[in-house]
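sry for the spam today, last one i promise. struct tokens for design, 497 residues
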């Protein structure tokens, strides 16, 4: 055999070795109860609810909160979700959470069994709020609560006495990013409710159309208009262009109107569809745009959008273990890792795209070309499953990173309501600074926020389980949202990996 051929084969084996390891049959330790994980991942959202809680609320240690939100502006802004362990309602990540929950139901709802109703309720708790936040034409309310004052306190949402300041974008203070994401969420949700509540679905789509028109007509980043309020918490670091394409993509999927298809094609390069294609999260939608639009290409319905599929293929290749990419790493224990805080948000959102794309490829009988070899749909599913299994306990710490799942999980999560005695057990008011003793306590949280997935371990697979280390111990809605679809699929298809 010629030397060059031997070297080439040796290189391919080195590249493929981690992939072959992922292809091995699962051990007994990795056979998880994905149905239980699905139920708990949805239950978590009930613990994040703001506003007046319904009679069927299952997280009973939570109570009504923030019942006067928006009153200073003469609008009703009650409801919605607290994004993480604080008591502010940030519209940007909430809208992204709603979009991903809706996408989970659209693609994997048939696999959710008895949990489908709860997943739909989780979507509607967000969209009911987003409809309120967009009820004034030409205005999108994007935040409720003074984040700096809120972060200076450690108190239950039921007790909070910090200012519930409202922040909005309009023609004079544009916010195409948060408005574009809101339009995407409403459009995606309209698909969820199309056959279940046609009237609500139509209202969601109509509102999505008007909000997108506002976002496109008055272009600008909300973190420029409202920098002092939204930065550094949910500052838009990657620009508003991706949200405009993202909103148009979901509007096209929901409405099938030619104008949105033409918008995507005409603005593909202007709005930078090929930028940062291995990013996907509340701030950067590029990889999600490419995967979402690629479904049309793979189905043979939009060959003129082939460039989006090429971008999606490149994104998928960048995630394969053993193929070097400067922004993607894997920990020694096998966890996908991107530099920055709350790594688990990247793990769950990128794994969701791997799974979604694998299904689109399977239906079109295609693979992903990655240099001199190709990645099969089953390989993409195995990589996604390896990340899900890591979260549920197949990791060097031998712990689940989902609260309430398994025998060992985080007990001191960075979450105000979870860490302070509930109103039911401690009815007296606990003020802003009075909660500090609970924040600093080494004791486990008194209220179990079942289903919460925390920021996770560091690149060395170490996890301190410490409330003050918020980058690793804080749960967020946008960590959990992609997991709903992932758990549903692996629950319904235990052998399809």
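last one done:
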């Amino acid at each position: 055999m010629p030397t060059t051929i031997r070297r080439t084969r040796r290189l391919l084996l080195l590249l493929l070795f981690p992939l072959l390891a992922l292809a091995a049959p699962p051990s007994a330790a990795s056979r998880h109860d994905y149905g239980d994980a699905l139920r708990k991942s949805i239950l978590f959202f009930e613990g994040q609810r703001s506003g007046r809680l319904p009679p069927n609320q299952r997280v009973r240690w939570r109570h009504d909160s923030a019942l006067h939100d928006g009153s200073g502006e003469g609008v009703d802004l009650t409801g919605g979700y607290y994004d993480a362990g604080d008591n502010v309602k940030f519209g940007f990540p909430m809208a992204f959470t709603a979009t991903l929950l809706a996408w989970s139901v659209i693609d994997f709802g048939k696999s959710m069994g008895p949990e489908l109703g709860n997943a739909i309720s989780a979507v509607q708790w967000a969209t009911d709020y987003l409809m309120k936040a967009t009820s004034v034409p030409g205005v999108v309310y994007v935040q409720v609560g003074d984040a700096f004052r809120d972060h200076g306190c450690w108190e239950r949402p039921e007790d909070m006495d910090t200012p519930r300041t409202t922040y909005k974008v309009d023609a004079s203070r544009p916010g195409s990013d948060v408005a574009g994401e809101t339009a995407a969420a409403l459009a995606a949700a309209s698909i969820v409710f199309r056959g279940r509540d046609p009237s609500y679905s139509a209202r969601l789509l109509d509102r999505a159309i008007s909000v997108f028109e506002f976002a496109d007509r008055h272009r600008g980043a909300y973190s420029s208009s409202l920098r002092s309020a939204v930065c550094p918490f949910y500052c838009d670091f990657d620009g508003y262009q991706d949200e405009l394409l993202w909103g148009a993509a979901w509007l096209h999927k929901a409405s099938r109107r030619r104008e949105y298809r033409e918008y995507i094609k005409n603005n593909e390069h202007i709005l930078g569809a090929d930028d940062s294609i291995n990013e996907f999260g509340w701030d950067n939608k590029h990889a999600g745009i490419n995967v979402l639009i690629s479904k049309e290409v793979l189905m043979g319905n939009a060959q003129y959008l082939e460039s989006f599929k090429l971008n999606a293929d490149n994104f998928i290749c960048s995630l394969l273990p053993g193929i070097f990419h400067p922004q993607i790493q894997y920990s020694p224990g096998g966890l996908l890792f991107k530099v920055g805080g709350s790594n688990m948000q990247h793990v769950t959102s990128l794994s969701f795209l791997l799974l979604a794309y694998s299904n689109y490829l399977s239906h079109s009988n295609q693979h992903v070309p990655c240099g001199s070899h190709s990645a099969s749909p089953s390989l993409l599913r195995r990589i996604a499953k390896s990340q899900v299994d890591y979260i549920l306990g197949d990791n060097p710490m031998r712990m689940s990173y989902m609260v309430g799942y398994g025998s060992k999980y985080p007990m001191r999560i960075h979450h105000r309501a979870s860490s302070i005695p509930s109103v039911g057990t401690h009815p007296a008011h606990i003020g802003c600074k009075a909660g500090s003793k609970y924040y600093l306590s080494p004791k486990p949280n008194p209220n179990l926020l079942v289903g919460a997935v925390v920021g996770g371990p560091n690149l060395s697979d170490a996890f301190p389980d410490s409330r003050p280390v918020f980058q690793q111990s804080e749960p967020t809605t946008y960590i959990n949202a992609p997991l709903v679809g992932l758990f549903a699929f692996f629950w319904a298809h235990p052998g399809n990996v």
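Residues 31-492 form a domain with the Glycosyltransferase fold (CATH 1.50.10.10). ok im logging off now
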